[in-house]
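Subject: for your reference before the review

Hello V.,

The reviewers asked for a structural picture of the protein, and I figured it would be easier to keep everything in one thread rather than splitting it across files. Below is the amino acid sequence we used in the manuscript, unchanged from the supplementary table.
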Amino acid sequence: MGSVGAVTTRRGRGLPWLVVGLWAVLLAVAGPFAVKLGDVQHDRATDYLPASADSTQVAELQDRLPGGETTELVLVYHRASGLTAADRTTARTQLAGIAEHHRLTARTPRGVPSADGTTLMYPVSSNEPGTDEKKRNDFVDDVRRLAHGQGGLSVRVGGPAALATDASGVYASLGGPLLYTTVAVVAILLVLIYRSPLLWLVPLVVAGLSDFLARAAAYGLNQAFGTTVSGQSAGIMTILVFGAGTDYALLLVSRHREELRRHERPYDAMRAALRGCGPAVLASSGTVAAGLLCLLAADLNSSRGMGPLGTVGVLCALAAMLTLLPAVLVLLGRRVFWPLVPAHGSTPKARRSLFAAMGSSAGRRPLTVLASGTVLLGALALGALGLPGAIKQLDTFVDRPESVTAMETVARAYAERSAQPIEIMTPAGRADATLAEAKGTRGVADARAGRTGGGWTEITVSASAPPQSAAETATIEALRHRLPGSHVGGPSAQQLDLRDTGARDRVVVVPLVLAAVLLILVVLLRSLVAPLLLVAAVVAVWGAALGLGGLAFGPLFGFHGTDPGLGLLSFVFLVALGVDYGIFLMHRMREEALRGAAPGDAALTALRTTGGVIASAGLVLAATFAVLTNMGLVPLVELGFVIAVGVLLDTFLVRTYLVTSASVALGRRVWWPGRLSRPVPDPARVPEPVDA
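And here is what came back from the structure prediction:
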């Protein structure tokens, strides 16, 4: 026994240092790749569009035309009292200056005056930036510098390229500012949860290192498989690393603190903690990864790229929290918990647990609690009927930038036509026939042929209806119907394709996510009823969270639409992440049942022992996603809001009351058809053996 103890002691001292050393080497190797992730991050239209849509084909074919991708702007000169001769001279002078500094497709852009004489619009385009986003942004910024108002004359730069530049400015904030805000939010919550001057720093640093590793892995995915990396997917990957990673850390640290009271050495306590909560953490991360990987079946490029990046983030967080965090905690010993140090052989102070009280109320009247909670979730879900329709491109910014105000001015001054072009790519041999057919389509104000190359000709169409109106949508659909063999794209067509593909992706991906999550739960819990209960609970949470969004987006936030991908992405995140807490609760409940506890006692004990951890984890995860509500794009605000309120509902209503009350009401049937569902024989009723 002495030699075994000595070996264990040496292992307890050497293994943690070995793990820390391996992580140091791994991070050193990953460093050069992690810093390159920003170089492969793109936010062009094709990074978000449906892979097979007409508008995507147009964007890709335009890149192959002579000169490459066209950067299109609209310069808007406006004076409310009417433009003067001096204003028109100023406009011509500024346009000449722009032409001197940049290579424009039309050397002398032609101005289009409004009927009321208040506005002069100059369409400006250039192939100079190509597909380079930085060059495009620099071009737009320089045009804005050269075109400026004076003496009551306002000059604003709008158009597709200006909108894209303003959007890229917001996506740029998803790097540093998002990371710093997330770290600050998590740090504050960990300080409040642990009430220790040192302990909060350990999981936070480990989460930061796992985010660094995830960035390197994401860069590797891009290089090896061409995985799309956008500002949205990279930002959400960071949130997942800190949110999910901190959740795993909270569960592990709580179990480690519990085991330190039973074991003298921190190494033995950590081994017991990993044996106790390791399977739950592994299953939890497995459900999140499986749910996110189902996004590979989506047709939206933005959704499909988010799946692998989110999975990489979760797996890196898992690896760090199950290896590096335990090693650091063992090396720091009990003192890391100061001033609330768990002494060996001690028992925690007896105090009335909030979750014990909540569990007791759910246990006394389980059916009443279950019915009341179900009715409440159903009522909240009805709010989804109030969700605004698909968001228009001009409504995607929280604070309206110059590009939006420019296009709003155009919409008011040129009600008879759209300043947002519809782009058609047609086989070069049919260009004349396509042009004639387009001009004869109802709702088309003008059409003209453009560049030709690679067997394709570009035709630019101006609709007579405002951008993204029902009439313009009808014009786009009519063009697609009347021009077989051609592709119809442009900004409005892109939004139409995003909406239609979002509906298609929900039909395909949602069943895959449910099947994958359900399968993992069945394997983990050795039951069919318990997994179905957890899946039904998270689906109800998703519906209620969307309902709260419907009640808040328009009346409170003043949003005029919802992103087409909101339903799918919020479903994937809420189902995959929400099941996490169900796994923590049900896994502990199963442990208690295996120890012989009665079904009701097992449910209440599980809630009492894991309720605080689940609540802390839920607060951290909700807070990390709530960081998105401070970003400047409406789709990100909406996604962050729905996931944050969904996590809170799941944490404090569904897990605490509904799952617990359902488990008490079902008794052993919750484990059907596993062996735990079978009644335990009463020893008092077993007949004594009869002697021969």
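For the response letter, the relevant points are probably these. The radius of gyration is 30 Å. The longest strand covers residues 444-453.

Happy to draft the paragraph if you're swamped.

O.
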